[in-house]
């Protein structure tokens, strides 16, 4: 036991010489309050980090892209071609338009989609319209038959740019403060890119 | 003796903290796992991302949808008209509902069991329940969001204000037709 092997610091050693006052103590015994304080600080730090992360990610954070810029979204690259506000939507066949709800307006977003992965699913319902006060609206079902497709969820030739049309119904008070189309990927905690129309 | 005490003290403090934490958790937790938001007919309550108001409750044993008789019951249909306004950034979605009486719970009748509103919109819709007219004392409407991942949510509990006399009046609605209106949707003005 006394063959000259060094002892690891802080390890209780039954053969260690006694403390000057006669009792032998380990690391905890020497600094009990320091260990407690470290444990409390680590616990508070962990809870604080977790709470901060949850607070930051509770609501989506947005990054507004340059006008007309592209952004990758799932299996495709997307670009906002135009963003138009109108009171009524006309279909390809009938002359009777579909009016927005009282006090509301239609917003027509034409988005160019270029698929890279033919098997990937494009989450069109997550292409949300972002308002000026960070309100978001999900795409609405087209009340009339429109000329452009509403999405390319599982179609579209690879590497061939195709324009789709997303419809949103928003309060008229919000339609003057629209920002663009947010590509909100539920699988990502990163900032949400927002497509904005070209100037 | 002093060193022994110094060694034991942190352990005792740690055990005490665990015991206190467990007691606090036990004292603060509720059996339901949700926060109640209480209201009554005609009273607007703030819940999740919007406001909720029960406008009226009507009874009848024949259900009329779009002017056409659709269902009959030996009990009663309760048609509760609810206004939901999404005043915040996100949509108000309370797609789950039930009527709770003193001793029994009634689930929604058919589809369309809850209320939803997009941001900046207000919807007014009729919720239909089939109830036992003899057991509708203390009836209240409960609305809550559908959850894929369970979390601590708010649940609206809106008393329909049915006293015994009113319950008797509901019983008098046997054989009467009660109409279900279309959902009205408009921007908040």
Strand share of the residues of chain B?
over 45%
Share in helix of chain A: 10-25%
Largest sheet of chain A: 5 strands, mixed
Low-confidence regions of chain B = none
N-to-C order of helices and strands of chain A: HHEEEEEEEEEEE
The arrangement of helices and strands of chain B along the chain is: HEEEEEEEEEEEHEE
Oligomerization: heterodimer
Task: Supply Rg of chain A.
Answer: 30 Å
Largest interface: A-B, 28 and 20 residues
What is the general shape of chain A?
A: elongated
Mean pLDDT of chain B equals 87
How does this structure look, described?
The complex is a heterodimer of chains A (199) and B (189). Chain A has helices spanning 27-30, 32-57; strands spanning 62-67, 70-73, 76-86, 88-89, 98-99, 104-115, 127-130, 136-137, 162-171, 180-183, 192-196. Chain A is of the alpha+beta class. Chain A is elongated, with a radius of gyration of 30 Å. Chain A starts with 26 loop residues before the first helix and ends with a strand. By secondary structure, chain B is α+β, with helices and mostly antiparallel strands. Chain B is 19% helix and 47% strand. In chain B, the strands form 3 sheets. In chain B, strands 2, 3, 4, 9, 12 and 13 form a 6-stranded mixed β-sheet that branches. In chain B, β2 and β3 (50-65) form a beta hairpin. The longest helix of chain B is centred in the N-terminal third of the chain and has 27 residues, at 2-28. The interface between A and B is medium-sized, with 28 and 20 residues.
Topology:
The complex is a heterodimer of chains A (199) and B (189).
Chain A: H1 27-30, H2 32-57, E1 62-67, E2 70-73, E3 76-86, E4 88-89, E5 98-99, E6 104-115, E7 127-130, E8 136-137, E9 162-171, E10 180-183, E11 192-196
Parallel strand pairs in A: 1-11
Antiparallel strand pairs in A: 2-3, 3-6, 4-5, 6-9, 7-8, 7-10, 10-11
Chain B: H1 2-28, E1 34-40, E2 44-47, E3 50-65, E4 68-85, E5 92-94, E6 96-100, E7 105-106, E8 115-117, E9 121-131, E10 140-144, E11 153-159, H2 164-171, E12 177-180, E13 184-187
Parallel strand pairs in B: 1-11, 3-12
Antiparallel strand pairs in B: 2-3, 3-4, 4-9, 5-8, 6-7, 6-10, 9-13, 10-11
């Amino acid at each position: 036991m006394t063959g000259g092997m060094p002892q690891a610091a802080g390890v209780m050693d039954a053969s260690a010489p006694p403390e000057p006052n006669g009792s032998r103590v380990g690391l905890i015994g020497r600094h009990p309050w320091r260990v407690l304080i470290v444990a409390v600080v680590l616990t508070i730090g962990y809870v604080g980090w977790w709470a901060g992360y949850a607070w930051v990610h509770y609501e989506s954070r947005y990054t507004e892209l340059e006008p007309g810029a592209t952004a990758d979204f799932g299996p495709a690259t997307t670009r906002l071609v135009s963003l138009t506000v109108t009171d009524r939507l006309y279909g390809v066949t009938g002359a009777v338009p579909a009016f927005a709800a009282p006090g509301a307006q239609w917003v027509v977003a034409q988005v160019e989609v270029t698929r890279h992965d033919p098997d990937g699913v494009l989450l069109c319902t997550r292409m949300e319209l972002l308002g000026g006060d960070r309100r978001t609206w999900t795409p609405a079902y087209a009340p009339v038959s429109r000329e452009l497709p509403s999405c390319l969820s599982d179609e579209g030739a690879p590497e061939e740019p195709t324009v789709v049309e997303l419809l949103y119904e928003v309060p008229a008070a919000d339609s003057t403060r629209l920002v663009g189309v947010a590509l909100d990927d539920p699988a990502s905690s990163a900032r949400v890119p927002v497509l904005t129309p070209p100037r | 003796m002093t060193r022994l005490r110094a060694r034991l003290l942190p352990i005792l403090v740690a055990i005490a903290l665990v015991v206190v934490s467990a007691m606090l958790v036990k004292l603060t937790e509720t059996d339901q796992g949700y926060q109640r938001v209480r209201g009554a007919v005609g009273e607007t309550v703030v819940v999740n991302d919007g406001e909720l108001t029960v406008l009226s409750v009507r009874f009848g044993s024949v259900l009329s949808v779009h002017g056409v008789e659709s269902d009959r019951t030996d009990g009663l249909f309760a048609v509760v008209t609810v206004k939901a306004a999404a005043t915040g950034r996100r949509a108000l979605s309370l797609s789950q509902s039930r009527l709770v009486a003193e001793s029994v719970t009634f689930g929604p009748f058919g589809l369309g069991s809850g209320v939803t509103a997009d941001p900046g919109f207000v919807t007014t819709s009729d919720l239909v329940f089939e109830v036992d007219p003899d057991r509708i004392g203390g009836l209240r409407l409960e609305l809550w969001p559908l959850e894929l991942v369970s979390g601590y949510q708010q649940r609206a509990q809106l008393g329909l204000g049915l006293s015994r006399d009113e319950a008797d009046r509901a019983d008098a609605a046997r054989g009467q037709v009660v109409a279900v209106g279309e959902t009205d949707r408009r921007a908040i003005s």
